[in-house]
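ok so for the tutorial part 2 we go from a plain amino acid sequence to predicted structure tokens. step 1 is just haveing the sequence, like this:
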Amino acid sequence: MIESGSRTTVTSISRSVTLSGICLRIAGQPDFLIDSDTVTVGAARECDLVIDDPGVSRTHFQILRRPEGWLLRDLKSTNGTMVERARVVEAWLSTGMTITIGRTSIEFMAVSDMAPVSASASEGFGDAVGRSQAMREIFSLLERVSQTDATVLIEGETGSGKEVIARGIHDASRRAQGPFVVFDCGATPRDLVESILFGHERGAFTGAVTTREGLFEQADGGTLFLDEVGELPPEVQPKLLRILESREVRRVGGSKARKVSVRLVAATNRRLESEVAAGRFRADLFFRLAVIRVTLPALKDRIQDIPLLVSAFTSRRKAVHGSCPVVSDRALSILSQWNWPGNVRELFNALERAASLCPGSVVDVADLPPYILDAVLPGRKPDNDGPTAPLDRIVRPWASAREDCINRFEREYLADLMEKCGGNLTVAARCADLDRKHLRNLLKKHGLYQGPDPIAE
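step 2 — the prediction. this is what the tokens look like for a chain of 457 residues:
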């Protein structure tokens, strides 16, 4: 258990899974999940959970967070509040209890009770794979919460596989037959974010020559994945919060609100607590998004997963191209010694390069990117013994050594630059005094680009 002021969260042993808040479940409706110290339920629109039932008072009851747990308090309602068939003024709640108001029954659940009691027996979730303890704990949680409509916040370094996890949540959910819509908050001009997310009416602003449906409407019945949600402009954040609370969206320039049924999954490579403390991200939106948080470990912290990731890569490449060279044990050993600052994306880019340039049916040490060999095998020199040459090099040509030093410098500089700039390409280009396109090409070269997969571009 971790105490943070009056806020209590449950974190797994590996610190990869964090859960807080409550879940209120009404049959036939999406789950209501919220992390707040006070949750009000009633018929009034200003309530956190609005109940359309003639037997429900405007503000019927509250659920309060206390150090001892969750306390229900009736707010002098007309018809009273029942907990487990007993009328109460106040009652301590525990997971599984049924609250009845009017003709409506509400199942209460502390979200912390969704925490996995053990790691999953599976080594995969969707297209994500891993046999490390941290990844299997994440899989165990996602196997449970995917069946709900809970908002999930995925945290992790660039390239760690956040979109793959988001897609897995969608595919394992009741919404799998609905659309999966992706929006990169950091790759869109700030003045267009609101229009793209919520849509706009014709004439709402200069250039709005037609009515446009927003991404929330496009994702109706499915899942909307907000990548790099920490980049969301401050003026858009309260509007996103309003949609999460009301489940209605209003287009820019429009007067009519439209009901939408959308499951939201968000991702960020930032620590949103720091963004909240700095005043760049709304605290109420953060707590609404962070009811269920998953922190993906960096690849360097789960090296034991590399053989499984390599196997997954070769299987998928074989499915696309009809064949794929196998990776030798010696090459696999080298891959397991690199620290992978670009994470899984960098590993897959390195494997794609090796598979494309490999002259035979086996990817060996000589086929791996030079910058990895230089870091793992210092002091290489040319020899005449064929495939063992990279292992026996002591003296290297000037041009080759110079090029590799430059590559190492570029890689370390770019990784540090993008980390300090929060992954924002525009800010990084300005700070480095580089052309934005040139910086993007350098990031692609070193497997650090956080935009669309450079292989697919």
